[in-house]
Design a protein that fits this description.
Helix content is about 35%, strand content about 20%. It is an alpha+beta fold. It has 2 domains: about 1-90, Phosphorylase Kinase, domain 1, CATH 3.30.200.20; about 95-235, Transferase(Phosphotransferase) domain 1 (Transferase(Phosphotransferase), domain 1). The chain has a 5-stranded antiparallel β-sheet with strand order 1-2-3-5-4, sandwiched between helices. It has a 3-stranded antiparallel β-sheet with strand order 6-8-9. Helix 7 (about 200-210) runs antiparallel to helix 9.
Length: about 240
């Protein structure tokens, strides 16, 4: 695997990036690692995911995000795919994960829950419209920006996403050597079956995380989410 030092030098030489340093080192696994730094254009922070799949994940993450023309996904700054220096650079999110936020559930007032649930539903509709299956929708992959009263929900980590239809994206070859990872992709509670992914089903589970009585307190949103289950899903061939 290409060293982080070599990749950082390549990025700072080729792109308007500076001050690149390792980030979330404890989360580095399966060949993936992370960097943080700044744009030399405007000084803003950037987040870089180093691809451990030889470029396949970087390509689909960048292209999935560009197909989803909504404010609820990160903005792509640059990416390279298909070589030892594969990566995707994204805008930095000043946000907290929904997983962390839910540990402070009393802070979530009904108006906040409604705001987040509406955005969750909008993200799911956008995914279906683009025929993209994220495959890992869960609170750890949902970030919440709380800069003002109108909190923004942002879905992250499209590295293992798939696209169906005429422009179908095949399964990542990364899983050919590690098929056991498919069993845990998405989290047990957010899938109906170990090797079947349905983002609508996962979104319903997230909605219940936000409000265990979602079906009673927000029936319109709940019914919209439920109605999308089974519309777009993917079953792995093992």
């Amino acid at each position: 695997m290409t060293s982080i030092k070599k990749l950082s030098a390549h990025l700072e030489r080729t792109y308007p990036f500076a001050n690149l340093t390792p980030y979330l080192t404890s989360y580095s696994h399966h060949g993936f690692s992370y960097l943080e730094g700044n744009s030399t254009k405007d000084g803003r922070r950037i987040f870089i995911k180093v691809d451990g799949t030889g470029g396949d994940a970087a390509w689909r993450e960048a292209n999935a995000l560009r197909l989803l023309d909504i404010p609820n996904v990160p903005r792509v700054i640059a990416y390279e795919a298909g070589g030892p220096l594969s990566f995707v650079a994204l805008e930095w999110l000043d946000a907290v994960s929904l997983e962390a936020l839910l540990k402070h559930r009393p802070l979530l007032q009904p108006a906040r829950k409604l705001l987040l649930l509406n955005q969750l539903c909008a993200v799911l509709q956008a995914l279906h419209g683009a025929k993209i299956i994220h495959r890992d929708i869960r609170p750890a992959n949902i970030m919440i920006e709380m800069k003002n009263e109108n909190w923004k929900l942002v879905l992250i980590d499209f590295a293992f996403s798939l696209r169906l239809g005429g422009d179908r994206w095949p399964e990542l070859s990364f899983f050919d050597l590690q098929p056991e990872l498919l069993a845990v992709l998405g989290g047990e509670r957010y899938k109906q079956d170990r090797y079947v992914w349905d983002d609508a089903y996962a979104a319903c589970q997230v909605a219940l995380d936000i409000d265990p009585q979602c079906h009673l307190n927000y029936p319109d949103i709940w019914n919209r989410l439920i109605a999308m289950i089974g519309k777009i899903n993917y079953a792995a061939i093992i």
